[in-house]
Each structure stands twice: as structure tokens, then as C-alpha cells.
Amino acid sequence: MSLPNISEYLATDDLTILLGLIAATVFLVNNLYKPQPLVHPILLGRQSDVGRARNPGESAVYRNYSTGLMGRFPVRPGKDVHILADLVRPETEAPRTLWSTKITNHNFQDRVAAVGTGLLRLAPLKPRESGVLILLNDCIEFLLADLALASHSIVSYTLSSSTLLPSVLESHRPNAIITHAFMLPKLLELVYDTSDRTVQHTIVVVGEPSPQALASVASNITILKFADVEREGVRVEKILSPIPKPTDVFSISFYEAENGLIQGAQLTHANITAGVAAIHALLPAANAFTPLDTITSAHSLSTTYGRTIAYTALYEGTSFATLVSSAAYHAGDKPTVLDSKDAISGTQYPIPSPTVIFLKPEHLKAIATDVIKQGARSWLLYPFAWRHKVSGVSEGFVTKESLWDRVLFDGARTKILGPTAATLRATIVSGGPIEASLMTPARIALSVPVINVLSHPLVSGPVLATHAFDLQDFPLAKTKSQSVLPAHSGPPGINVEVKLVGVDDEAVEKGSDPVGVVFVRGPPVGKLVNVDGYENIPSQTTDDEEGWTGTGLRAKVQTNGSFVVMTD
Question: AMP-dependent synthetase/ligase domain: from which residue to which, for each copy (predicted)?
Fold first, then answer.
């Protein structure tokens, strides 16, 4: 029996050629059109630079990989920025809208100078001696007063919550108080209860106080209208004070710690400029803030982090507004619903549609839930759209320009977010842990970078922050008490160092991830003070010799240098 000729096995027909072409086309399309990661996976595999040595009971020192162990910390966003006043750049001439006011930087600087002069003349305040309590919700008058006081080296006090007012008013007697007209009656009662009638007080009111409130003013209290103070500063020659130093304290921001103690963050000009530099670095260089952006924030200016966000907007030349829920003071009951409507409530002001929003975890969860629920109404297209978007995210890629966005998700986002859905390009979330299972649905629902930030009342910038294009979705991990760990918060910010204290040395030596209390140090970290004055805080929270400050939070460091905050 003769062997078959090899040519018989190589014989082809039209069907064989067609099937071969189809297979080659499918292979090429799958590889050429497969979404590429927005950031190289190697960069996400090592997000922190780790010190080579550690002390017993502590982890090594961690820095952001982009800074490096030997790199210098960025302490200001620009070479010409040294103090708060430098954040308002005179070379930026285009107007932008701050809440309801359209204003240029030149006019803003003029108003700051007028307010400062008016306060010195009418309050009267003394540079480097006086202190002023700012009891204002977020508004342009807050920024004007804050910058005016800082330019004359007058320390301002802010409160993260109205419940702190009686304690702070009793322990830190201010020379003047700036507040809203609707708060005047309650404030007068507190002043009468906490001070002697022979002590003189000055209250500057934003808005028009009611006749009833004015009628109840005692003889030792002087009421000034903010508009009259500014008008006085415009009328007379401006008063100039010595230029503050970057290390000068300009404000103390009071907050209630987790242990119930009222504490304060003593902030210098350098703390805020370093915080602005850190927030500026949250977005990649190719997607940096521009004057065309509009920023809205859920964080009150009375908090350290919220104030730094506002100064970042000032420096970048963007329009800016805050959400309804950011208000610290209310005429009636405080609204507590952090939902999708509140997330876009900044658009109640005449600002351009927001492009970058600073939210809280509750906002992110509400938006993701509402957008996905809206998209799921299209029962035929939704399964295909969801599968393709999940596939893109798993490959490290997300976009609002895909076919499935145009067909399905754009309409769902617009239904929930309105015009913001089209202009939004980044979402920065802080103020609590985010559920790990929420991250992928949120990235699909918004289809823009979602940056998870760990903030703290003592730190003006991010303590920890994820990379804008880090779309990794790790398996859900659990603690010893079987509670699910939240999403990771990324590596340290670009200008802080982080270490963990109270780690299990034996477990670490065996290769386990370090777990302990987060300590932080760096230019954005303010000094901790008690409500009763400048007192030392117990050593469990600070290490004064090396400048470390405890946050009171427990965290775990993963092998790639990202941190996960423990919730139990």
C-alpha cells in the first residue's frame, strides 16, 4: 500500500480559505482593539517606596513612589507661592465664578485688602495679637475674611461643627466674631452666658440682621455689617502689615476627635500651600487642573481639608462652589441626606457645569446605585453593556466615549446627574471608607477616574490617595471579626511619610502584611492642640521628637504599597 502524497493534505478549497481568513480577522481584532491599560501595570505593582529598616513594633516608613525615599517633598504648588496670599495669582486675568460671584483675581485681591483694612479700623483688631472666630458657611465672604486676617497675621478660629461653639467660645475668647445674620440671636445668647457683661465684643454680620436681633444687643456688643466693613476699607487708604512668614500660624481648625475630645489643628501658611500641592498632584499631569475646570466640594471650608480644596481652586483659577450638605450652620434642622441630588447641588449657583467633584462615600454609593438602576431599565441592552464595561475595567481601561456609553450609560448618567454627566472628568472621594464591592460599579456608572482619598482633620492634603487610573479590583478580604475590608486607599500622598505603630513583629518577619495605627508626618501636617489651649497631647497619638502624628486609624499595608484602612 502506497503512502498518500503530502499535497493531498495541503489541498484547500474556498471554504477552508474563508474560515482561515475569519480566524485571522478575529485574532487581529481581539488584539488590536483590546483596550489598553490607562497606566502601566508595573507602576501599580509598586506604589510606595519602603524604608529598608524599621523599629521594633513599627513598620518601615512608606513614601509615595513618585517622591522616593531620597526625594524632597513638594511644599508649594508653584515656585512663587510661599504664603496664602500668593495662591491668588495676579497673572491670571480671566474671571471665574466663586459661588454666586463672578470675579477676577485682581478684584478678589482688592476686596481682600479692603476687608482687612476695614476690620483693623472698625473691629478694631491688632496684627499678631488678635484672634477672630469665623462662624460662616461656605461663601466668598469666608475666603475674603480668611485671607484678610492671614495677611495681617491675625489668627482665625473655625469649627467643623456648630456643636463645638460653646466650648471653643469659652476657652478661646476671640476679639471679634464673623457670622451670618440668621445666627446672631443664638450667638448673642451664648456670648451672654459665657462672658462678663463688662467685656467688649465685636460681631461682624454677613447679611441683614433682623430688627428683633438688633434690639436684643447689649451695650458691650458692637454689631458691624460685613458690607460696611468692606466699604470702609475701600473708602480709606489700605493698611499694610509686615508680610507673614510661611511658618506663621494663621488659623486653628477645631474638630471633635473619635475619642470625643475637642481638638484643634494649628495651621501655618506652609501647611496649606503643601496641601494645595498635594491635591494638585491627585490628577495626572496629562489631566491636570486648568482654569477651564469647575470644582464642587462636599467638604466644609471650616475643615482643614475642605479649606485646602477651596484654596486649590483659587490657585488653579477654576470656578468653585460647595454642596448644600457642606454647611456647618443651619437656621433649622440640619439636612443629613447625602444622595445623588446633593452630589450635584453645587449647580444651584451660577457656575459652569462641574468637571471635578470632591464627594463623600455616601454620595458615590448613591450615584452608582441610581445610575446602574436607571441603566438596568433597558433589560435588553443592559446585560451586554455591563459585560463590556466590566471587561474594560478589568483590563485597566475606562472611558465615557464607548459604544455602550453612547447607547445606554450616557442617558442613565444624564438622568441622574443632569448636565454634570457630560462635563465630569474626575471624582475624588474622601470622608470615610468606601465599600470594596462598590468601586467597579462606581467606575462603570461614572466612567471617569474615581480617586479614593484618606483625609484627616490635622492634615491639609491627602494622607493616602489612590492613583487616578488604578482600576484594580482585589478579592474581598475579611478581618478576624469577619467584617469585609473597604477598598484600598492607595499609597501615601506625595509629600507625607506614613508608618504603622503597634505591628506584630513576629507576623511581619514571617511575611505577613503589617497592621497597625497610622502615623503621618510631612509639610501638610498641622500641630495638634486641645480646646483648652496649646497643650501637649498624650504620646499615644504623637511622637514629637521625630515629628510623627497619630491619626487614630488602623490600617494594613498590602504588598504593592497601598494601604487598607481597618474598620473593626
Answer: 101-525
Question: CA-CA distance, 374 to 416, in Å (whole number)?
Answer: 8
The residue whose grid cell reads 470632591 is 358
pLDDT tens-digit readout, 159-191: 999 999 988 888 888 999 999 999 999 999 888
Q: How many residues are there in the chain?
A: 568
267 exposure class (CB count in 10 Å sphere: 0-12, 13-18, 19+): buried
Question: For 79-148, where are the E strands, in sequence order?
Answer: 96-98, 101-103, 131-135
Cell numbers given for 50: 519602603
User: Which residue in the block uniquely carries the three cell numbers 495605627?
Assistant: 517
Which amino acid appears at position 323 of this protein?
L
Is the Cβ–Cβ distance between 314 and 297 less than 8 Å? no
Of 132, 136, 200, residue with least CA distance to 169? 132
Which DSSP letter does residue 155 get? E
Contact 88, 121 (CB under 8 A): no
DSSP class of residue 484?
B
Least Cα distance to 128 among 248, 237, 247 occurs for 248
φ and ψ of 252, to 5 deg: -125, 120
Task: Look up the pTM and report it.
Answer: 0.92
Question: Is the CB of residue 270 less than 8 Å from the CB of residue 461?
Answer: no
Residue 474: CA count within 13 A, CB half-sphere:
21
Query: Residue 533 pLDDT > 90, yes or no?
Result: no
Write out the three cell numbers for 350.
451660577
What is the distance in angstroms between the CA of the first residue and the CA of the last residue of the chain?
Answer: 80
Picking from 334, 308, 338, the residue whose alpha carbon sits closest to that of residue 323 is: 338
How does DSSP assign 32-69, residue by residue?
A: HSSPPPSS-HHHHH--EEE-S---TTB---EEETTT-S
